[in-house]
Amino acid sequence: MRTEENGEEHEEKNDSDCHVYLHSGRHDNRVQCFGAEGDRSTYKKEITIAVNSETGGMDPAGNIALTYLSYSVTALDELLTFDEKGEIECRAAQSYEVNEDSTEWTFHLREGACWSDGTPVTSADFKNTIVRALDPKSGSGYANYLFPIEHAEEIYEGTADMESLGVETPDENTLIFHLSKPCVYFLELLRLPVYTPSCSKYAKETGSGWDKNPETSLSNGPFYLEKYVPEQYFVLKKNERYWNADAVHLERITYRFFEEQQAMLSAYETKEVDVAVSLPSVVMELYQGKDDLAVTDNIATRYIYPNLDVKPLDDVRVREAINLAINREDLCKMVGEDTEPTVNFVAKRMKNNTTGEYFVEEADPPFEENVEKARELLSQAGYPDGKGFPVLTYKYPSLELDADTAQVIQEQLKQNLNIEIKLEAQELQTNYATRRAGNFDLCRMNWTADFADPYTYLSMLLSNGTYNCSGVRDEKYDRLVEASDVETDPVKRNALLHEAEQWAVGEQFYIIPLFSMKSCNLIRPDITGVSQIPATGALEYRYADVKGD
Q1: Which residues pair with 235 in a beta bridge?
Q2: pLDDT: is 549 or 492 the higher one?
Q3: Homologous superfamily of 300-518 in CATH?
Q4: 166 close to 152: Cβ distance less than 8 angstroms
Q5: CA 198 – CA 60 distance, rounded (Å)
Q6: What is the C-alpha to C-alpha distance for residues 447 and 397, in angstroms, rounded to an integer?
Q7: What is the structure's pLDDT at 338?
Q8: What is the pTM of this model?
Q9: Could you give the CA distance from residue 448 to residue 360 in angstroms, rounded to a whole number?
């Protein structure tokens, strides 16, 4: 891993005045800056990045996945974010105020900010995304993160009119959120897609294709969409109208889609791309000691959804038996050194914003693996030595890591429980659609934190959660998580969050956690200023540069 201080770039990046009122301290995650000066035949201010295959759209109110995340981190400005020290960094907003009970948040947009076509960015553009995301037809997986806003949940469920939405735009530069109750992590939510703007002039209908058309897909950030070739690549060009354009060094960023990790590695080695992310663990050995290698912690958990609407997975004893029968240490040894076993839902590397410690290390593990107990549970459920147990199908993306994982789990469950698991590899986009439709017995899932709070994980299992696709409907769990939303005492809130995870993962076994991961990335040594987003672990290129001799 390489780190480099880019003082000049950070000074340019942080030169905005951000006036914040009633702001409390935040997390102490650190951003690493990667890159060291090196040789390159021509020093164009352009880079090409290899990413996983095209998935989802680029409309922040729509059905998004990896493609949007690659695009948005360099093309869109959220209202504000948090820097490497956990301090607020204003972007689209230049200041904000909050009332005493934290139910009214007023944001003042940056004066003179405009879209990449020169039209002003207005408060209506932020509301436009929210309104469209609250239409269930949008397919937004993030709509439930709007529910702290007054009447947002009722609007989504069709029991209230849009006119009652607690979002106010008194003028073009003022955006006011009225919350139904205090939400202690509300500022963290503002980095999510549904809180980013979409130009009201073009973004009128989700799914109409405006988001991948360079003529209508406008940006309020450092780069804008110049070209999009489906299933191949898209190109971002520097936005000269960006308020902080002087701090942006690159002229273009090209994202190329790859179906296989090996193809990404080959493209890097043949210099077709300058950055390759999320590569197989063998890269750690191949590039050990070389400046290209950047290994980062992902704030992510790889796990399996058991479908509670499928027998016998509706029986908690069966779900517990499967969990206890998997040897995660052996699994990780088999699939790669970039994995680390976990029995938690919340990511291993997510820190408690109050204590600075890793959240999962502050409580006992939800459960311990135990093959003998697993066999007893399966027998109690009516399947002694696996007899009579139906064949379950495990659906997963056709990626090398997931294929290896599936084979190990299949073998372990056969050996330890004498049950048969059928494996079905799917193209990544197909796997997403299968999961959303609930068309599975067992389905692979990976969740990278969207913001720096355990709620980003625990909300997935709420009865009204838009990513709850496995049939979890648990009033006790809902009450625990909802109570944590409004608890302002950090110690009491932490206890509620741990209790919720213990109930869901260690008593009801709603998921089958497997491992957390490190991300193996390759970055040309002459590229500097690539930073890591503290909340998610993802790489950010908005202030990157290519250095010459």
Answers
A1: 227, 254
A2: 492
A3: Dipeptide-binding Protein; Domain 3 (3.10.105.10)
A4: yes
A5: 7
A6: 14
A7: 87
A8: 0.81
A9: 15
Q: Which CATH superfamily is domain 7-257+524-546 in?
A: Periplasmic binding protein-like II (3.40.190.10)
The bridge status of strand 275-279 relative to strand 46-52 is parallel
Asked if residues 287 and 293 have their Cβ atoms less than 8 Å apart, the reply is yes
d(CA 456, CA 459): 6
Q: Which token pair is 503?
A: 């109930």
DSSP code, position 129:
H
Buried b (16+ CB within 10 A) or exposed e, 76-115: bbbbbbbbbebebebbbbbbbebeeebbbbbbbbbeebbb
Summarised one tens digit per residue, pLDDT across range 32-87 is 444 443 444 345 899 999 998 877 889 999 988 778 888 998 999 999 998 877 78
| Domain coordinates in residue numbering, the chain | 7-257+524-546, 300-518
Q: Are 305 and 443 in contact (CB under 8 A)?
A: yes
Q: Are 443 and 394 in contact (CB under 8 A)?
A: yes
Angle between helices 316-325 and 400-417 (to 10 degrees): 110
Closest alpha carbon to 61 in 224, 210, 187 = 210
To the nearest 5 percent, what fractions of the chain are helix, strand and coil?
Answer: 30, 25, 45
* The 19-20 sheet, strands edge to edge: 19-20, 93-98, 104-109, 174-178, 167-171
Radius of gyration of the chain from Cα atoms?
Answer: 23
Closest CA to 543 of 45, 1, 41: 45
Q: State how far the Cα of 131 lies from the Cα of 194, in Å rounded to an integer.
A: 9
Extract the tokens encoding 356: 């600075």
